[in-house]
Amino acid sequence: MFDPRHGNRLLRALLVGTALLAAGLPASAQEDDEAEYQAQIPDVSIYKAMLDANKRTGWVQFREYAGQQLIYFTALQSMHCRLKEVRYSINSDTLDQTFPMAKCDPELPFNLPSDDSQNWIYIKLKPGEAQTIAVQAVWDDGSGSEIVVYQPCKNPEATCAAIKTIKKAKARADEPAPSTPVR
């Protein structure tokens, strides 16, 4: 059954909320009903959450195809708008190589590059050459992810990767120092 006292409380709350909302808006926003859209790259925290969510299924993927071993960087490339670089190494954890990142289009920040070259998607190796690949994502703010070492899946027909080990990021001489002191 409806109690009018609840209706009055609801109406009062709506009126107060509307007044607070109107008071917080700048005058120009109330007068103008449109603004020019400016594409913005999503916050790095979204990309870091994506990276973490993809860790188990593989930041990279192995595939044996046409007499070659291919290692796909597709999952990482979809984060190229916030990645400074992707460091990797084959059969070691030295992270002595970098995978090229595509140019960011703020209008389509998660899209893969549109050119037909494989340069943005995978590397080619001899069949079975990579027993492991160590991978670290380096964000546009200079911070690095943990180092994940992947190995090919046991099913040679699959395009996949399995985690072998996870290592904490090593301090590197070429990383920028934090802007604020660590407490």
Q: Specify the structural class.
A: alpha+beta
Average pLDDT, to the nearest integer? 80
Strand arrangement, largest sheet?
A: 4-3-6-7-8
Work out the helicity level.
10-25%
| Shape assignment | globular
Number of helices, where a helix is a run of at least 4 consecutive DSSP H or I residues? 4
Tell me the total number of β-strands.
Answer: 8
Report on the biggest sheet. 5 strands, antiparallel
Low-confidence stretches are: 1-25, 176-183
* Subunit organisation of the chains: single chain
Percentage of residues in DSSP E strands: 15-25%
Order of SSEs? HHHEEHEEEEEE
Calculate Rg over CA atoms. 24 Å
Distance between the termini: 58 Å
Overview of the molecule:
By secondary structure, the protein is of the alpha+beta class. 22% of the residues lie in helices and 25% in strands. It is built from 4 helices and 8 strands; from the N terminus they run αααββαββββββ. It has a 5-stranded antiparallel sheet, with no helix packed on it.
Concise summary:
Helix content is 22%, strand content 25%.
Topology:
Elements: H1 4-24, H2 27-31, H3 44-54, E1 61-65, E2 68-72, H4 74-77, E3 83-90, E4 97-99, E5 122-125, E6 133-139, E7 147-152, E8 161-167
Antiparallel strand pairs: 1-2, 2-5, 3-4, 3-6, 6-7, 7-8
Keywords: Signal
Signal peptide: 1-29
Task: Pick out its properties.
single chain, 183 residues, five-stranded antiparallel β-sheet, three-stranded antiparallel β-sheet, 4 helices, 8 strands, globular, disordered N terminus, signal
